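Table S4 entry, Regulatory protein, IclR.
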Amino acid sequence: MEKGKNLHRSLQRALDIMELIASCSEGLTLSNISQKLGIPKSSALSLLNTLVERKYLIFDSATNRYKMGIKMFEVGSGYLRESEFMDAIMAVVAKVARKSNETVHLAVRDGRDVIYIAKIESNHPIRIASSIGKRIPAHATALGKALLSGLSDKELRELYSQQPPERLTANTICEVEKLIEEIRKVRENGYALDYEESSEGVRCFGAPIFNHNEQIIAAISIAVPTIRVNEENEGYFIELIKEAAQEISDILKIYQKQSLI
């Protein structure tokens, strides 16, 4: 540190906390953070409460661990929008849209919802009604199921402990245990399906995107009007979205490893 610089101690500590938690995919407890950074628990707790309130962190009451929040992603996205890194990711999204000729979304999870962060529309006259920034319930979408697959069964029960999943269509999974069974299939298969569970007449195929810590941080999906889905293209959409998710995960890992050098 250069002499004469007037640095804010509390702000430095808050940034240290965010950087530490970002490097730990399973999250950290108050004791972990206090010990690793040499910060008194009382001081650390005050900073953590503020960061949780502002959504830079989330607190998992089931494990007593702090994890990255949606605001950390949003702030990072502001930089990524101007970077070659995001250009590389959007090139993959565009390739999926071109090969499928259907609408493709990128999304992140915020609690029980998913938020669209990117979209490329189909060229078909019948398209999917959606917009960047839109929130939809995670349990009823392929994107959301892919993102929820990063949680344990215990974490899923905690997430829906206060209020069960809401019904959006006749096909929506509204029972927590049935949803957990569905998420287990996503973990096993590496992809998620939406059978008109969020919108009638729409099928979706989604897959999770991993960072260099093998933590699910986003998901990608193909949304298709049910009338255009058949036995032949269903398997094609699944393989296409799995390959795209892996390609984006690889881009993330390369970028993040370079940023750590």
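The mean pLDDT is 86.
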